[in-house]
Amino acid sequence: IRSLVKRFSEESLLTAALFSLSALFFLYSSIDTLSQGLVVLVPLGIMSGIAQTISTTLVTKQVAPALMGSGMGLSASLGSISRITAPLMSGYLIEFVDYGAPLKCCGTLRPPFSR
């Protein structure tokens, strides 16, 4: 990550990672074979790791040192809430819409919330 941050700004890296994740979620929702899935999952994992690392870094830079614990706690809490609600929403979308609907929904929601 350090070499990427030296070359690009953290904000542009986060934006690029989130848009890449959006495209990869759409692509993953339309795969047919296991080998295609594995080809998509590798960059999906890499982009997800980059986005998580950069977003944590940006939180630490935006919060005052006296409020660092609160900022990191809030960030972790929001992540936990999303990990609780996402499977519930995914189950609903799979049952009532389509098997690929959760991935398409995630791909649609990523870019508007990237900033």
State the gist of this model:
The chain has 115 residues and is an all-alpha fold. The protein has helices spanning 2-7, 10-28, 34-62, 68-96, 101-109.
- Biggest sheet, in brief? none
Question: Helix and strand string, N-terminal first?
Answer: HHHHH
Quaternary state of the chains: single chain
User: In percent, how much strand structure appears in the residues?
Assistant: under 5%
User: Given the structure, what is the number of helices?
Assistant: 5
- The N- and C-terminal alpha carbons lie at a distance of 20 Å
- Residue stretches low in confidence (pLDDT < 50, at least 5 long) are none
Percent range of helical residues: over 70%
Principal-axes geometry comes out as flat
Rounded mean pLDDT is 83
E-strand count = 0
Q: Which structural class matches the secondary elements?
A: mainly alpha
Kindly provide the radius of gyration, computed on alpha-carbon positions and rounded to a whole number of angstroms. Answer: 16 Å
Write structural notes for this entry.
It is a single chain. This protein has 115 residues and is mainly α. The chain contains 5 helices and no strands. It starts with a helix and ends in a 6-residue tail after the last helix. The relative contact order is 0.15. The mean pLDDT is 83.
